[in-house]
Automatic annotation (TrEMBL):
Matches recorded under InterPro entries: DNA_pol3_alpha_NTPase_dom, DNA_pol3_finger, DnaE2/DnaE/PolC, DNAPol_HHH
Region of interest: Disordered: 619-657
Keyword Transferase listed: yes
Biased composition, class Pro residues, residue ranges: 624-636
Domain (Bacterial DNA polymerase III alpha subunit NTPase) ranges: 261-517
Database matches in Gene3D superfamilies: 1.10.150.870, Metal-dependent hydrolases
Domain of life: Bacteria
Boundaries of every DNA polymerase III alpha subunit finger domain copy: 549-615, 661-728
Name of a matching Pfam family: DNA_pol3_alpha
Protein's name in the database: DNA-directed DNA polymerase
Species of the source: Candidatus Ozemobacter sibiricus
Uppermost EC category: transferase
Catalysed reaction, written as an equation: DNA(n) + a 2'-deoxyribonucleoside 5'-triphosphate = DNA(n+1) + diphosphate
Upper taxonomic lineage: Bacteria, Candidatus Ozemobacteria, Candidatus Ozemobacterales, Candidatus Ozemobacteraceae, Candidatus Ozemobacter
Length: 1046
């Protein structure tokens, strides 16, 4: 009988082109085959280490984790036996990835393997690998002689003397690549995808698909010592970082000293915010929070974040802490956040509490201009080897897997396009389940075996990684060095990224800080800097209630005139603000929560609007509706939410509203008119109705939100809630209904503290827009990255009464400048102008440019830069564009007279308007001298957008430039669009339902360079806001102009 042999190696999909089985699938296959071990030996990486450890535990297997080091001939399998050995391998992997594609040395070991420290085991497979081990000494690393499944007896006998001299016992090396026979084709397809080739040209190394021990041993039955060696080798676990133990960076060796420092900083910050002595409520809350932070051992973490915030403020930039951190008074005192948690009823327990032992999650937003500077600060403060960005693992979705598999299998592009359009954003499994009832799948060859083969192979590749990218903002500071936990790989930033993604990083115990780049904080910093140069900053900027009460701000907010203002400028948000006639900080905070998809789709947004108007104007309004997939028609009007048939408690109710479920429920939801819209509302209701502590209520919120959801947890929580409610006299039927609503709403509820943090910045920016429109819009244009494109912001600037002038070589900076109340565009807007040329230009501005000749001599733009500067209008002080171009041509040809350039008079006439517009599009990509509608042939009979209120319910025709679009897929799988168009008077909204989109959606691709389209549809009104429900889109062609000289 053949002895059983365990596999010693396995490639996960992170060894791109080598593996196709995620650890969880391989673990299930190995367990089913009776194997005792789950190996993982990716090529110079630990990307899949945590999933492998967890998969092994789930299937009762021992993890055997190392990495494969490729050599010019053969390879090494390296397994760490202690933490130092693991760190050494992580360092080697990091060095390997610093120079991807570097050729391997013909003999010996590559330099990134020199000097491995710690303890471990090194398995050499191949004669050259064995020889390399003999040439390099790794104290603490035991050598093994690897015998591959395809090894010949002759080669083995040739290697035996060297192995004996090294003291390297033989081990059979079987690499498990496949968990199922179908994985072989999947790997060939994966290789074809990586090489952009057809699958017919791909081969894969021989590897077993039967994983039972006797099957793996069969090829080496002639070498029983190697099989026995593999069993003994696999019986000894490799070392991996322990999971579930937190590793926080320490600023102080003594935790008590860290706590004392944090308490001193917090008390000082609180006194700055509230005055001294602290009000009793503030002092009590601060002491309670500090006590929890100290008990949980997180003082050093807060001190680390404080250092980061202090550095940003030293550089003159505000930090915006968001998410649940804004529930904390300590965060507010230390200026992580800028919303008063006491004044706005924010619960610390939503952020941190004794029942929740996971570390705090503090997210910080910075101006996009300084985030890299903050990274460098962390490296200086903690050392290069302790700081890393967190990676994200980009994977193939269903549509991508289908498309790439089809290309590799040779499907025609047109046929693949049909398949990928049909699948949309579904998984392949979802597509297969719904395909026969989906309109988008009509006409597909669903019964064709070739099509089914495509889907089968694609489903095996779905979810597999394609490459690493950067997490949006996650950073870790690793005590003792990042290589204690993970290898790193290079990025375009000054800091490398971890091989492990966010969840694995947390599993090995590193605590992430999210440092996110935000363009609006760049706007804030620019305007504050300009105002500071004019005098002291207005105190109103630090008082959110005063900001909201400011008459111009209140008027703009209530009308939804918020274009350019962070967080509240999208078409949907502008519409919601207008429907609410939003006034005040609390209403703005609620608005930015109820607009989220889950709330809106459940009918809660419409219910909130109706209740808001009822509470503020005394109108009757429906009771709280049960969550539904879409708003339910009711007598209140189309799209309004219908009353719920649920039983109501006769007592309770809110002013202007019908009775609610129970007085306890109504009272805690008074702020939101009896509707749960915040995550904190679940906590409030559990606390008030069932007597949960706030810490227990937060754990319930987490369970309901899905982060820790499980049937057993939910069953225990439900029983505890119903018992607590009964103890407080809540009828059983009412308690059941409250529980049902909590469970339904919590899945899409939003963190109130996050909305409140962003609402502060929104009000500050809106105040800047209302009172300093030129400075504000100049900053919006400079920082880019808003919801709309720069052309839309130029139009908004003009609507505010601010002129926008073209760049000027004598007056422009790199960014925009406000001169005499007008915005002069910066040189950064000139297409193709290099920073080096711009810097020469800015340096030469000191002495001015007496002539074009002087400009050319001192700035030296190349031909393309000169053309762009001329087209943009930046050279207009030297004459009309045609004259300037001819003058340069003469200068390059030596056509200069002592008196300067000699030009014919006809080229010195001002350029016609259409020529200026075409030049601006070439030089800036923007129109300054005209509106896009000026360049198209508008048909007669179009309605201007300011006349829409006079035509509610009627069919009209308008034209506008497309400035925003939002594609939506309905529950039936049909596509539709929300469009924002703009005519000369302002933006207007268009809804294109599926029938109209199917027929007229192609018009958007025919809009031409300036993006103008026409729309015909019915004018609809909703709480005073207007939109057009399109029944037809139509193209509007460009007008015919003579060609513009270049």
């Amino acid at each position: 009988m053949i002895d059983r042999c365990p596999p010693l190696g396995c490639f996960s999909p992170y060894s791109f082109g080598e593996g196709v089985c995620p650890p969880v699938r391989m673990a299930a296959a190995l367990a089913a085959a009776g194997q005792p071990v789950l190996p993982l030996t990716d090529v110079m990486g630990f990307w899949a280490l945590v999933p492998a450890v967890k998969a092994a535990a789930a299937h009762g297997l021992q993890p055997l984790i190392g990495m494969l080091a490729p050599l010019a001939d053969g390879f090494l399998l390296l397994y760490p036996d202690d933490e130092a050995g693991y760190s050494a391998l992580a360092r080697a992997a990091s060095a390997f990835h610093r120079h991807p594609g570097r050729p391997l040395p013909a003999t010996g070991l590559p330099d990134w393997l020199h000097g491995l420290t710690g303890r471990g085991r090194a398995v050499a497979v191949g004669s050259a690998a064995l020889a390399a081990l003999a040439d390099f000494s790794f104290p603490g690393w035991q050598p093994f002689w690897g015998i591959s499944a395809d090894a010949s007896r002759a080669r083995t006998e040739a290697e035996r003397p060297l192995a004996a001299r090294l003291g390297a016992p033989p081990v059979a090396v079987i690499l498990a690549r496949f968990a199922h026979p179908a994985d072989r084709l999947a790997l060939r397809v994966l290789r074809a995808i990586h090489q952009n080739a057809l699958v017919d040209r791909m081969t894969v190394p021989p590897a077993p698909t039967a994983l039972a021990g006797d099957a793996l041993a069969a090829p080496l039955s002639w070498f029983p010592e190697a099989i026995a060696g593999a069993r003994a080798f696999a019986a000894v676990p490799s070392w991996t970082p322990p999971l579930g133990r937190w590793h926080l960076p320490r600023l102080f060796a003594d935790p008590a000293e860290a706590h004392q420092r944090l308490a001193a900083l917090a008390r000082h910050g609180a006194a700055t915010r509230y005055g001294s002595p602290l009000p009793p409520a503030v002092a009590e809350r601060l002491a309670a929070e500090l006590r929890v932070i100290a008990d949980l051992g997180f003082a050093d973490y807060f001190l680390l974040v404080h250092e980061i915030v202090t550095e940003a403020e030293r550089q003159g930039h505000r930090v915006l802490g968001r998410g649940s951190a804004a529930n904390s008074l300590v965060s507010y005192a230390l200026r992580f956040t800028h919303v008063d948690p006491l004044r706005h009823h924010l619960y610390f327990e939503r952020f941190l509490n004794p029942e929740r032992t996971t570390p705090p999650d503090i997210d910080l937003d910075f101006s996009w201009r300084i985030r890299d500077d903050i990274y460098r600060f962390l490296q200086r403060r903690w050392g290069d080897d302790q700081v890393a960005l967190i990676s994200t693992h980009v994977t193939l979705g269903g549509r991508g897997a289908l498309r790439e598999t089809g290309k590799a299998l040779g499907f025609p592009p047109a046929e693949l396009a049909r398949f990928t359009r049909a699948i949309g954003h579904r998984s392949i499994a979802e597509f297969l389940a719904e395909a026969r009832t989906m309109p988008a799948a009509r006409g597909l060859p669903l019964g064709n075996p070739v099509f089914h083969r495509l889907l089968r192979v694609a489903s095996r590749l779905e979810g597999l990684p394609t490459h690493l990218s950067l997490h949006a903002g996650g950073v870790v500071v690793a005590p003792g060095g990042i290589h204690r936990f993970t290898p790193v790989q290079p990025t375009s930033k000054p800091v490398p990224m971890t091989q492990m993604e966010m969840h694995a990083i947390e599993a090995v115990g590193l605590v992430k800080i999210d440092l996110l780049a935000q363009r609006s904080l760049g706007v804030f910093a620019d305007v504050v800097g300009d105002l500071a140069r004019q005098g002291p900053l207005p105190a109103v900027l630090e008082d959110v209630d005063a900001l909201a009460a400011d008459p111009p701000v209140a008027e703009a907010l209530a009308a939804g005139r918020t274009m350019g203002v962070f967080y509240i400028e999208s078409p949907g948000m502008r519409s919601l603000l207008a429907r609410l006639r939003c006034r005040g900080f609390a209403e703005l905070t609620a608005a930015s929560s109820v607009i989220r998809p889950g709330v809106a789709e459940s009918g809660m947004m419409q219910a909130y609007i109706a209740r808001h108007h009822a509470a503020t104007a005394g109108a009757s309004v429906p009771s709280t509706p049960a969550p539904t997939a879409k708003p339910v028609p009711s007598p209140a009007g189309p799209g309004r939410a219908a009353p719920s048939p649920a039983d109501r408690s006769p007592a309770g109710g809110l002013p202007g509203l019908p009775p609610g479920l129970h007085p306890l429920f109504d009272e805690v939801l008074r702020e939101t008119y009896g509707i749960m819209i915040y995550q904190e509302d679940v906590m409030k209701v559990a606390h008030a109705v069932a007597g949960f502590t706030l810490g227990e209520a937060d754990l319930l919120r987490r369970a309901m939100s899905g982060k820790e959801r499980g049937d057993e947890i939910m069953a225990r929580s439900r029983s505890r809630f119903l018992e607590g409610a009964a103890a407080r006299g809540v009828p059983a039927a009412v308690a059941e209904e409250i529980w049902r609503q909590m469970a339904s709403f919590s899945g899409y509820a939003f963190c109130k503290a996050h909305s409140a943090s962003y609402a502060v910045l929104s009000l500050q920016l809106l105040w800047m827009k209302c009172h300093h429109p030129a400075l504000f819009m100049a900053a919006v244009l400079d920082n880019r990255g808003g919801f709309y494109g720069p052309q839309a912001y130029l139009s908004e600037t003009r609507r505010l009464g601010v002129a926008v002038l073209p760049p000027d070589v004598a007056r422009s900076g790199w960014n925009c400048r406000v001169i005499d109340g007008a915005i002069v565009l910066g040189l950064s807007f000139v297409k193709g102008l290099s920073r080096a040329t711009a810097d020469r230009l800015l340096a030469a501005q000191v002495d001015g440019f007496a002539s074009l000749e002087a400009f050319l001599d001192r700035v030296r733009p190349d031909d393309a830069e000169f053309a762009a500067l001329n087209d943009s209008g930046a050279l207009a002080r030297f004459g009309p564009p045609a004259a300037v171009q001819m003058a340069r041509t003469f200068a390059r040809g030596g056509g200069l007279l002592p008196g300067g350039f000699v030009l014919p008079s006809f080229v010195q006439k001002p350029a016609p308007r259409h020529e200026l517009a075409q030049r601006e599009l070439r030089g800036l990509g923007l129109l300054l001298s005209a509106h896009p509608l000026d360049l198209v042939a508008l048909p007669p009979g179009l309605l201007p957008s300011d006349r829409l209120p006079d035509h509610v319910g009627r069919v009209v025709r308008l034209a506008g430039v497309l400035i925003a679009r939002k594609p939506v897929t309905t529950k039936r799988g049909e596509r539709m669009q929300f469009l924002t168009l703009e005519d000369r008077l302002g933006p207007f909204e268009v809804t294109v339902f599926p029938p109209a989109w199917r027929r007229w959606g192609h018009v958007l691709s025919e809009a031409g360079e300036v993006g103008v389209i026409g729309v015909e549809g019915r004018v609809a009104a909703d709480w005073g806001t207007l939109s057009l429900e399109a029944n037809r889109l139509f193209p509007i062609p460009l007008r015919s102009f003579p060609p513009t000289p270049r």
